[in-house]
Design a protein that fits this description.
alpha/beta, disordered N terminus, 256 residues, 6-stranded mixed β-sheet, two-stranded parallel sheet, 9 helices, Glutaredoxin, globular
């Protein structure tokens, strides 16, 4: 006799996410090489500064002189590639040394219903285990995209495996899927990104209030160095120029 519960909360969450998708439209997503659909012609200074709120999920020193805002989707291959190939070097040379902080903002892309659900589950992980829990779930969602995103995958089962790693069992999982307030928070992130920075693809980045496009880790190094110097009047001393193990791939930000 089976003791598995019906997947009604997951189905309701998918329906709520579908309404979200209908309201927001669909953004573009970069490919598996770390590219995004961002247009270099749209890069540059914007009137609104990078404002970090209590709702933001942040890695790094809150007093760091450089703030990187990443707009990303947990179903986006380009976002996963950035987190696997480029972010470790940025984290080592900039974030862990207190020179920069990373603000992660959800920006769902196709299949957007799954992206919304994954983002909501990460938010529940934050409530359960703080920022560490949030980024643990985000990291697993990126690393395991091939297992939980494709058509025909056991979406609920694979997502539950991920959340169980941070102490969210089936009951909490199903309760989380009914959190309309978290769906609304993600929706507001999207609308704010579109209004303030004209974000229309992932991954996209804002550095100290300016939308930027980086094609390589060398571009990242130059961009972050310029922002650091502008903020402090000093050189950073950071060394990142080549992504670990992947120097032939674009780091982020543009289609070839």
């Amino acid at each position: 006799m089976s003791h598995l519960r019906p997947a009604r909360p997951f189905a309701r969450a998918a329906a709520a996410a579908a309404l979200f998708v209908g309201a927001m439209g669909l953004a573009a997503c970069g490919g598996a090489n770390g590219e995004s659909g961002a247009d270099a012609g749209k890069a540059g200074a914007l009137p609104e500064a990078a404002t970090v709120t209590d709702a933001d999920m942040v890695i790094g020193d809150p007093d760091a002189p450089v703030t990187i805002i990443e707009f990303a989707s947990v179903t986006c291959p380009g976002c996963a590639a950035f987190h696997a190939r480029v972010l470790p070097d940025i984290k080592k040379d900039w974030i862990d040394t207190g020179k920069a902080r990373l603000v992660f903002r959800e920006f769902p892309t196709p299949p957007a219903q799954l992206s919304v659900i994954g983002s909501v589950l990460a938010r529940c992980a934050a409530e359960n285990a703080g920022g560490e829990g949030y980024f643990a779930v985000i990291g697993s969602l990126f690393q395991k995209q091939a297992e939980w995103v494709p058509n025909g995958a056991d979406h609920k089962g694979e997502l539950l495996k991920i959340t169980q790693q941070v102490g969210i069992g089936e009951d909490a999982f199903e309760t989380c899927l009914q959190r309309q307030d978290l769906v609304d928070l993600i929706y507001n992130n999207v609308k704010s990104a579109e209004a303030a920075y004209q974000i229309d693809s992932t991954p996209s980045f804002v550095v100290n209030g300016e939308k930027k496009s980086m094609r390589s880790l060398e571009d990242w190094s130059k961009t972050l160095e310029a922002a650091y110097v502008a903020a402090t009047g000093e050189q950073s001393g950071a060394q990142s120029e080549t992504p670990s193990g992947s120097d032939a791939e674009p780091a982020s930000g543009e289609e070839s």
